What does this fold into?
Amino acid sequence: MQDLIPGVNQSGTHKHKSVRTSKRGSTQLRKTLFLIMSVLMKRAPDHDSVYCFIQKKRNEEKPFFVCMNAGANKFLLIYFARVREHLATL
It folds into this structure.
């Protein structure tokens, strides 16, 4: 399973205030997941668990990209769980 890797918050004794997402992993996957999360936020389905999770993070005043990355990770977990369920029924 492909995960989004968050950036490193500290190095030795230095603690960073702003941390970018690590660039390890597939750039195409990151772009696609960001596009999916953007569409999800625009459509705003209140019953969707990923949308509710992103809204919860936004209410906690987390930075925008932190919310989007966390939502993308949750989306991947749910997606692969559903794929595993489907494959188990075959």
In short: The first helix runs from residue 27 to 43. The chain has a mean pLDDT of 82.
